[in-house]
Specification:
This protein is an alpha/beta fold and 302 residues long. The protein contains eleven helices and eleven strands. It folds into two domains: 81 residues, Arc Repressor Mutant, subunit A (Orthogonal Bundle), CATH 1.10.10; 213 residues, D-Maltodextrin-Binding Protein, domain 2 (3-Layer(aba) Sandwich).
């Protein structure tokens, strides 16, 4: 199975057009079509289906596409790691981070890391809820920066604690719930959960830790703007890191509820795959990340 054929399939699936895929790969359309057909003969299954608008992957093609993307990522990772081991600090570093990390850790880390390694391209992917760690498992990101999930499988991940964070219940200014002092009084409120699905999320964890039944999600978002836009209406409640709730850009529009139970105390950490050899760039990035976390913690204590 040739690597060029796998790349041709990836390009065809992502572009949705054989002509566009050929341009991306750098070959003629007949040559790209031939590579895909040879791949189909090799696996004895159709991988692409033509439509009036272009091409789409068949069920078998989707499976092959996912595996081909994994091969591409692993190869790029190996090439980058080999180069960095030889002292050539070039390549790409992909980070998934929660909004608190984007606000308090990423700017300082990028400033110092970028100054030391200007030829490393940093890509930051913001995620509100990282507990699934699916992007990390698929190899789409090198590091996840966010609250350390409970019950991580032993030996699968390497975790480095960075800084504590208090998640607090917030409501829009003028919300009828703004002065509520007990969590059990909020069971009937409309809650916004930050997760991939309503079955998980930090708000659910807050209720569970206090021995309460989590209320159903009125909305599930994976966007900072989506979360803020719902909370400021005054009709929804959400859980949010205290530093973000008190940020000058957010504080005029929301209030932290004075709950007797307090907030949800979490530890933000840097998470990598335990069975994946870390690129030198990742190790250096983690060092800069720890330095930024120390500064942020000291500033918060001051």
């Amino acid at each position: 199975m040739r690597l060029n054929a796998l790349r041709a399939l990836v390009a065809a699936v992502e572009e949705g057009s054989l002509r566009a895929a050929a341009r991306r790969v750098g070959c003629s359309q007949p040559a790209l079509t031939k590579m895909v057909r040879e791949l189909e003969r090799e696996v004895a299954a159709p991988l692409l289906m033509r439509s009036t608008t272009g091409v789409i992957a068949t069920a078998q093609g989707r499976v092959m596409y996912e595996q081909a993307r994994k091969v591409e990522r692993e190869l790029a990772h190996a090439v980058s790691q080999i180069g960095q081991l030889g002292g050539h600090m070039v390549g790409e570093l992909s980070i998934a981070a929660v909004p608190l990390a984007v606000l308090q850790l990423v700017p300082e880390t990028l400033r110092t890391f970028g100054r030391e390694f200007p030829q490393i391209d940093l890509r930051i992917r913001e995620q509100l809820y990282v507990a699934q760690l699916s992007d990390l498992r698929r190899g789409e990101v090198d590091v996840v920066v966010g609250p350390i999930p409970e019950g991580l499988p032993p030996g699968e991940f390497h975790v480095e604690p960075l800084m504590p964070v208090s998640m607090v219940v917030v409501a829009g200014t003028g919300s009828p719930h703004a002065q509520v002092q007990s969590l059990h009084q909020l069971a009937g409120a409309r809650w916004v959960y930050t997760s991939i699905a309503g079955a998980t999320g930090y708000a659910r964890l807050l209720f569970q830790r206090n021995g309460l039944q989590p209320p159903p999600a009125a909305a599930v978002v994976d966007s900072t703007l989506g979360l803020l836009s719902l909370v400021v209406t005054g009709e929804f409640l959400a859980l949010m890191p205290l530093p973000i709730a008190r940020h000058p850009a957010a504080q005029p529009f929301m209030t932290v509820l004075p709950l007797r139970e307090g907030g949800l105390e979490l530890m933000v950490g840097a998470i990598t795959m335990a069975d994946r050899a870390l690129k030198p760039a990742v190790r250096h990035f983690l060092s800069h990340l720890h330095r930024a976390a120390h500064h942020a913690t000291a500033a918060g204590a001051g």
